[in-house]
Amino acid sequence: MSSSSKARGPSRDQQTLGEAVVSQRIKQFPRGIILRIEIPHDGFEDFLKGNMLITYVMVNFCDVVEVLDEYGTLDAVLEPWQVPIVTATEKDEILRNRTRAQIRRILKQIQPAIYIPDTGTVYREDDGAKQLGGIREYKIRLKWLNQEIAEQGWEIELLPLAKGMKQWHFEEYVDLFHRLGFTNFAFYTRQYCGGSTGNQINDLIDHINNLITVIDPDNVLAIARHGETHLRKLPPRVTGASGLTQFIKSCSDGNGSFSQDMFAEWRPRREEALFANHGHKQPKLNDYKSC
Hints:
The chain starts with 16 loop residues before the first helix and ends in a 17-residue tail after the last helix. The model is unreliable at 2-7 and 281-291 (pLDDT under 50). It has a single domain, classed as TIM Barrel. The relative contact order is 0.14. By secondary structure, it is of the alpha/beta class. Strands 5-4-3-2-1-8-7-6 form an eight-stranded parallel sheet. It has twelve helices and eight strands. Helices cover 42% and strands 13% of the residues.
């Protein structure tokens, strides 16, 4: 992850204790079960109010834009101790139309925060040349973001998306990730859900293991993965998982709101599943054959 300086909302000469805690937390990897929310939404906003169980909150870039347009600050929906993880993992047509000026404006307003960037089409392309084009586009975005954050002095930590499936995809990133000092990564799993083939958990595990083989990350955050059975199968390097669907099913009070008590019972079971195989041998370089 990468870095900078200043506080969420208007700049301040001195940080409060809460701001200092958030500034420290963005430099840490978001381990465990992370809630992904949709805002503006009264049910989610009410759930977050005063909720000491929630430290990290994942939010789509588009939702952040809507909140900032309506309220002017994320402080309107987040408590001082809650760290925003803003993810750009959205539809390709949205990413294609997103400008650097829009990204600059949002990053300036959300700090301190963790940002997961995305751009370029890789997953839905069967053509290797097109996949390579998407990878190169993403590398350009990462280099620009890293430089922009440093130059502007923003308190934004980049958690790069490991955007690929095959070993050669990740080999394209090795030099850049090493040069920028990235050791923790996010992995988008939504494309492994649904469709005619259902949940493609074995493909997902193979592709995460390809990442581990080539990049040898310290930690991986699985985006859109809270199914208990699937969490138990993920490689031990996956130490964080974010999701929405299972939370809604398990913690809804039936009236459009969510129960903190239900969440307090639900999350430990999911974290137990996530860390169930962490006593097993950690995958290392060359543990897996190329696929």
